[in-house]
Amino acid sequence: xxxxxxxxxxxxxxxxxxxxxxxxxxxxxxxxxxxxxxxxxxxxxxxxxxxxxxxxxxxxxxxxxxxxxxxxxxxxxxxxxxxxxxxxxxxxxxxxxxxxxxxxxxxxxxxxxxxxxxxxxxxxxxxxxxxxxxxxxxxxxxxxxxxxxxxxxxxxxxxxxxxxxxxxxxxxxxxxxxxxxxxxxxxxxxxxxxxxxxxxxxxxxxxxxxx
Length: 211
Description:
Elements: E1 9-10, E2 16-18, H1 21-33, H2 39-46, H3 48-70, H4 78-85, H5 97-111, H6 116-138, H7 151-169, H8 172-187, H9 194-209
Antiparallel strand pairs: 1-2
Helix pairs in contact: 1-6, 2-3, 3-5, 5-6, 5-9, 6-7, 6-9, 7-8, 8-9
């Protein structure tokens, strides 16, 4: 998720004096979010089928644990992490973001060949992840019709996708084109479903460019 702006308390020198609970929550959320970047490595080392099975297993296990949490039960580690990374709007509800995150990576692995699949997953991991985090900390210029996202967050998305795509493709023009496209997708007000829209759209665009 990528709502890009949140005020911080700062000193007269511009240094962060205190970090709000929302920012601490966002740091935890996005640290977990960016772990999805290991999926291409899993696919390369263990095979795509194994990576898909592991993702599906993780989604099902998390969904089961989350259902138990809502009934008051506690599942080792998962419940605690979910509580630490839940935003106010998630309280009392099924936290959907980890499910859409897993399915976003699954979409990329299932429908796109390499290197488009890796580009899409890295865009999800770093483009979406870092844009939200940096946008909340530094975002001051809101972009109209994006649900509160900021210019600073979108610039972070562009930068993250450009560098991650360039590392994979080694072609600056392709990386630049993909980064611009991904930044537009990430700015859409899709809430938790940007975890699906961003990798699906970026992967398709990358695959078409690489044909």
